[in-house]
Description:
Strand order of the largest sheet: 7-8-10-9-11-14-12-13
CATH superfamily of the largest domain: Zn peptidases
Mean pLDDT: 83
CATH architecture of the largest domain: 3-Layer(aba) Sandwich
CATH class of the largest domain: Alpha Beta
Number of strands: 14
Amino acid sequence: xxxxxxxxxxxxxxxxxxxxxxxxxxxxxxxxxxxxxxxxxxxxxxxxxxxxxxxxxxxxxxxxxxxxxxxxxxxxxxxxxxxxxxxxxxxxxxxxxxxxxxxxxxxxxxxxxxxxxxxxxxxxxxxxxxxxxxxxxxxxxxxxxxxxxxxxxxxxxxxxxxxxxxxxxxxxxxxxxxxxxxxxxxxxxxxxxxxxxxxxxxxxxxxxxxxxxxxxxxxxxxxxxxxxxxxxxxxxxxxxxxxxxxxxxxxxxxxxxxxxxxxxxxxxxxxxxxxxxxxxxxxxxxxxxxxxxxxxxxxxxxxxxxxxxxxxxxxxxxxxxxxxxxxxxxxxxxxxxxxxxxxxxxxxxxxxxxxxxxxxxxxxxxxxxxxxxxxxxxxxxxxxxxxxxxxxxxxxxxxxxxxxxxxxxxxxxxxxxxxxxxxxxxxxxxxxxxxxxxxxxxxxxxxxxxxxxxxxxxxxxxxxxxxxxxxxxxxxxxxxxxxxxxxxxxxxxxx
Length: 495
C-alpha cells in the first residue's frame, strides 16, 4: 500500500508519463491449460495487464510491472514455468517515442485549447463555456444531472414535451453567426460536417464535432440529431450522448446503443463510435434510421480521457475523489463499477489500484449515464455494443463468471455474422473465455442483466507491439472494420 500511496503523489510533481520510468512490460505466453487456470498467481493490484494472456486462442499477454515488483513477478513466472521475456524495457521511454508526434487539433473554435483546470457549464442553447463555477441541474432518479435533448421538436416516447429546437440565428458568445457558418439544407447537410479519422482529438474538439452534427440537422425534415446532456463529470466536463432518429417515422422503434471511451487509454474506441454516427446518418443508408433509433456515447469517461492526454497515457479510471483516500488516490474504473457481481473478479477495493471498483456499485456519474440509458429504454434496446481495445475479440455475456447467459445462442449466431464481415481476424466467445479471465461490474454484463437481448464487446484487434497505443495510420481501417461488424448486426436484426 505504501508504494501505491507514493505513486499517486508522483504525478503532482513530475512531467507527463514519468511515473512509468523504469516500468517493464513482460510477455506472458501460456503453454498449458494448467498455467491458464493458475493465472491468478500472476495478478496483483499493481500489475497492469494491457492484454490478458489466453491459452485457448494463443494470445500472448502483456503485463506492465513497476520496478518494485520485478522480483515478485519473475518468481511467479518461474513458479508457473512461464518463460521470462521482456516486451518493453522502459515504458516511459516507449511512450516518449510514441508521443513525439504532436496531437492534431482542429481549427480554433469554442471547444479547443482546453485547460484541464477550467470547468464548463451549459448555456441555454446546450453549448458549453469555460467558467470557474459549476452549473447544477435537477438531479434525475439515478443521481445524474440529466437535462433534455437539445434538438427534439415532437413529444418524446413517454409523452413529455422536450426542449425546443436550438436553431440560433444571432451571434453566439464567440461572435460567430451560426446560421452563416452552417448552411443547413436537405441536400447538403452531410457535406457540412467534416471530421478526419486519421488522428486522435481532444475532448473539446470531439464536443465541437458533436454539436456541429446536431446543428447541421436542426432543420432537417427527415432526421433528428439530439444531444442529450447528462450533467457534468467530477472535473465539470459535460457528459453527453447522441440520439439519432428518423423524424416523423415510426415511434418507439428498437434502439441500438454504442458506447466508446469507457477505458480512457483506449483512444481507438472513440473514433470508432463517431464513425458509426457518420455512417448511420449517410443518406444512402436510410434503412438504419428507418428501423432503429441510435444512441451513441462517444466518450463515456471524459475526465480520464483528458488525463491520458495531459498526464498519464495509460490511465484507466475517471478522476473522482469519493473514496476515503480522496485526492491522494483519485479515480474509479468505470468498467468495474456497474451493479453486476460488483467488486469481486478482476476488481479491487483499493482506491489506488487501476482496477478500483468504487465506493459502491453505480457510484460514478459516468456509470449512471449508462444506467440511465438502459433504465429508460430497456424495453426498446435491441443491441448494446461496448467498444474496447483488448486484443481482437467479439464477445458476449457473461464476463463476471465462466458461463454464458441464457441468450448465448442468439448472441453467438449474430456475432458469427459480425466476425465474418470484418477484414481482420477476430475471436468469438463468451467474454470470460475470450479474455481468459472473469471481470465483475462491466457495462455489457449490466446491459444483459437488464434484459438487453444482444450485448457485445468489440475489442479492437491488436496493432503494433502492444495493442494499447494504436498508431494513427491504423485508425481509418479499424473504424471501417468496426462499422462492418455493427452494420451487419443491424442488417441481421432488420431481417
